[in-house]
Amino acid sequence: LHGSPLTDAGLALLNPALSIHPSLVALDLGDCMLGDEGINLICGLLPPDGAKSGLKELTLSANPGVTSKGWGRLAIAVAHSSQLRVLNLDYNPLGDQVAGMLAVAVASSRTLEVLDLEGTGLTNQSALTLLDMVENYPTALRTLILAENNISPELQQQISDLLSEGEEEEEMEAREVTAREKSPWICQNSKTS
């Protein structure tokens, strides 16, 4: 639906069908002229942990009519969603306050792997909050896009390096677990020979 002049009223008409669709996993509502009412409807498509299945990928790029109240509501839904893996919020005027709310949501989420915040009016203040989150809280986040913001290249690089370290640590842990799982089998096998 990207780029269609859907508005909140149009989304309200579509929402009943979207909410009962048995296999809807990705939704692109970028540049659809949505506001806070639309965000409230979208939050219903991000069920909390243990509830029904929900969206795995959500794109809300370029919807400048959403206020910080709407983004705050979305951040809460993301924090409790058991499904969402990719969230694209690029080219929305989010600013540092909303970025702070999103950092809390990401720190709470066990599933969010990609967050696109390109061109969202963030500054080094946001980057420091996001850096603190990545440094001190275990998250599933692997990709954080911060291009076209007023953030120093050094801070962007620090965040990128920490996200890369997390991937490397996970790969090593996975290899160690695999080795441990194989070791008892090898030992048992050699005893029976």
TrEMBL record:
Residues 174-183 have a biased composition (Basic and acidic residues). Pfam families: LRR_6 (PF13516). The keyword Cytoplasm does not apply. SMART domains: LRR_RI. The keyword rRNA-binding does not apply. Keywords: Repeat. Residues 165-193 are annotated as: Disordered. This is Leucine-rich repeat-containing protein 73. It comes from Apaloderma vittatum (Bar-tailed trogon).
